[in-house]
Amino acid sequence: MKTTTLIVLTITLFSSCRNKTELGKQIETTESVKIKQGVKLYVLDGGSILANKLEIFSQDTTYTGQTKQMADAYYVIAHPKGNLIWDAGLPENLVGQQPYTDPSGAFTVSRKDSLKNQLASIGFKISDFKYIALSHLHFDHVGHANNFKNATWLVQENEYNFIANDSIKVKNEDIYNSIKELTNIKKLNGDFDVFGDGTVIIKTMPGHTIGHQVLYVEAGFDNPILLTGDLYHFEENRKNKGVPSFNHNVEQTLKSMTSFEAFAKEKNAEVIIQHSQKDFNRLQNLLKK
């Protein structure tokens, strides 16, 4: 009789623990779904770039004599635990001005609207952001970065150290001045799960610059979104693994491309090439659904 009672008690306790475990998993799944449904992605126009000397986007003569119109997007990621701005477009002093061509003649740039106006159009203020992250520190990705001086800047440590070097401050004064007010800094050494739940992940993909990074976002679509930064500049770059002549390290870039494609396949992610006008329009249309 005692043995029978012990067996029944053991079965009861086991069933109770199993039920609690299953309930815990259900609650965890429900919370995960709620968080993912609460993550929102917005794409905004950080300006326009006409590449007058497209050959600089290749290691050979592939693009000699060609030009190409490029988008310059930046992104808002709204999350229940805070908001993130990804990239920062072209300088805002271009707003209201005629298109500007740099002294080398390589680029003609313009910008139609300000950060403040664009954020207001989707219901945000500059003060609403907990984080800012830049794919890398080139002129077309840091334009309005200093506006987020009260946010925490998420940056690869080697990228930060490069721009904070005294000689680089002088050599790339405009770039340094574009980020010098970002004093709340979290230095990263590799991938970083921004909100700790897997929905927004910064992935290190060096090569274009020493600390270049891309962004993975789960925002309630059928597929996650994977923003390329400048790992690729346009579709044929991705197809042919084309590396610009001005990249920091060609070998690192190619390794990052391989890692990126493996990750995109693993996650079945929708890849958005940030400088592609086609992808800019495609993402806008996706967000309207």
Give a quick precis of the structure:
This protein has helices at residues 2-38, 115-121, 157-164, 166-171, 173-179, 235-240, 250-267, 277-288; strands at residues 40-51, 68-79, 82-86, 100-101, 107-110, 131-133, 152-156, 185-188, 192-193, 200-204, 213-217, 225-227, 270-272. With 289 residues, the chain is α/β, with parallel strands linked by helices. The longest helix has 37 residues, at 2-38.
Explain this structure to me?
It is a single chain. The protein is α/β, with parallel strands linked by helices. It has 2 domains: 1-38; 39-288, Metallo-beta-lactamase, Chain A (4-Layer Sandwich). The protein is built from 8 helices and 13 strands. An 8-stranded mixed β-sheet has the order 4-5-1-2-3-6-7-8. The protein has a 5-stranded mixed β-sheet with strand order 9-10-11-12-13, covered by helices on one side. The longest helix is centred in the first third of the chain and has 37 residues, at 2-38. It is globular. The N and C termini lie far apart (65 Å). Mean pLDDT is 90; it is low at 6-11.
Question: Mean of the pLDDT scores?
Answer: 90
**CA-atom Rg in angstroms:** 23 Å
Helix content: 25-40%
Please tally the helical runs, counting DSSP H or I stretches of 4 or more residues: 8
Q: Which regions contain 5 or more consecutive residues with pLDDT less than 50?
A: 6-11
Largest sheet: 8 strands, mixed
Number of domains as seen in the coordinates: 2
CATH class of the largest domain: Alpha Beta
As for the CATH topology of the largest domain, it is: Metallo-beta-lactamase, Chain A
Helical/strand content category:
alpha/beta
> How many E-type strands?
13
The sequence of SSEs as H and E is HEEEEEHEEHHHEEEEEHHEH
Q: Spatial order of the strands in the main sheet? A: 4-5-1-2-3-6-7-8
